[in-house]
Amino acid sequence: MSWIVLFPLALISALITHNLTLLFYTHVMAAVLWTGSDIFLGILLGPILSTLPPSARKPLLTRLFPKVFWILPI
Q1: Residue 38 near residue 74 (C-beta atoms within 8 A)
Q2: Cα(15)–Cα(23) distance, integer angstroms
Q3: To bridge 26 with a disulfide, which of 1, 10, 67, 74 should be the other Cys (CB 3.0-4.6 Å)?
Q4: 48 and 56 in contact (C-beta within 8 Å)?
Q5: Helix, strand or coil for residue 74?
Q6: Computed from CA positions of residues 61, 66, 67, 70, in that sequence, does the dihedral angle turn out positive or negative?
Q7: DSSP line for 3-64
Q8: Nearest 5°: phi and psi at 18?
Q9: Residues with Cβ < 8 Å from 4, sequence gap 6 or more?
Q10: Cβ atoms within 10 Å, residue 7
Q11: What is the pLDDT, as a whole number, of residue 2?
């Protein structure tokens, strides 16, 4: 879980040092990881959820939704 702190720390250090290159790199890499995780979840969960019966979908989505809500809020 400690790797999650990497991008906020890089952002803070870029803002403190006024390093525009680090700021751009942090922004682009965070966006790539965010978009990649969104697409991965869509490709992975789409076929899995379509094969599950509704009674089995509810526990999976109930457990997954709070985590995804904070990672992919939009």
Answers
A1: no
A2: 7
A3: 10
A4: no
A5: coil
A6: positive
A7: GGGHHHHHHHHHHHHT-HHHHHHHHHHHHHHHHHHHHHHHHHHHHHHHHS-HHHHHHHHHHH
A8: 55, 40
A9: none
A10: 15
A11: 66
Mean pLDDT of the chain: 85
Instruction: Report the candidate in 44, 15, 11, 46 with the shortest Cα–Cα distance to residue 26.
Output: 11
Q: Name the one residue in this structure whose structure tokens are 């979840």.
A: 41
Residue given tokens 């969960």 in the structure block: 45
Token pair for 53 = 């019966």
- Dist. CA 56–CA 54, nearest whole Å: 5
CA distance 71 to 26: 17
**pLDDT on residue 64:** 84
The crossing angle, in degrees rounded to 10, of helices 54-71 and 20-51 is: 170
